[in-house]
Amino acid sequence: MQKKERQDLIIEEVRVNRNVTSTYLAQKLNVSEDTIRRDLNELDKKGLVMKVHGGAVSTIQKLYHYNEEVIFNRDKKDTIAKKAGVLLKDGMVIIISGGTTNLMFAKQLPETLKATVYTYSLPIAMQLSDHPTVEVIFIGGKINKKSMVTVGIDVVQSLSQVMADICFIGVSSINELNGLTDEGYEVSLVKKAMIAASDKVVALATSNKLNIRQNYSVCGLEEINTLVTEIDANDSILQPYKNAGILIM
């Protein structure tokens, strides 16, 4: 295989997968890892990929590289993303909040989905930037550096002008008495605005977020239409949420 052909294949692998390791590329292309490292150095200098420790990421991630290897409960979040995907329909106006569960969900949006997505999450906006048929509207504002989302009055005001079909809201904590709560005051205000702007609210929560409480209220259970977790819908831990009239997936 000629170098030009090999490097073109590397670019395509990075574009499709966004984050690839040198080991994976070496096995895929049947060459040594040293050869791959030299290729990645050349492609990085040309601005065609971004070389990182152990591999490469898409150039769209130069602003912010999210290391998926450190996502906790990755398998659980992947299950939630697959479950939630059945709620999507062409033509929808969608709001997606931040968090790694929602990032996994955004990563798995069907390639043929035609929709408009509003998000205040920089990683999610970047993840969706390569989607061929999804229009992405990033809601600008002050960056919360811890969670890489925008917050503040500008974000809330922008959301007040949106009329969305569905909101996929990330969950920091949820319980029967307090509903949805969050650890950050500014983020809780933005989530309130997201919920107010949407006809339907879907909460995506790994089971470790159930039956706990944070300091700032987002909404009561009565404002949540659907709760998606990785556990079986008939698990007894979910009964209080069923009793509240929430559809469990």
From TrEMBL:
What are the alphabetically sorted keywords of the record?
A: DNA-binding, Repressor, Transcription, Transcription regulation
Gene3D superfamilies on file:
3.40.50.1360, Winged helix-like DNA-binding domain superfamily/Winged helix DNA-binding domain (1.10.10.10)
InterPro entries associated with the record: Carb_Metab_HTH_regulators, DeoR-like_C, DeoR_HTH, NagB/RpiA_transferase-like, Tscrpt_reg_HTH_DeoR_CS, WH-like_DNA-bd_sf, WH_DNA-bd_sf
Q: Does the keyword Transcription apply?
A: yes
- Put simply, this protein is called Transcriptional regulator of sugar metabolism
Pfam families xrefs: DeoRC (PF00455), HTH_DeoR (PF08220)
Q: Which domain of life is it from?
A: Bacteria
Q: Which organism is it from?
A: Galbibacter orientalis DSM 19592
**Residue ranges occupied by any HTH deoR-type domain in the UniProt entry:** 3-58
**GO MF annotations, alphabetized:** DNA binding; DNA-binding transcription factor activity
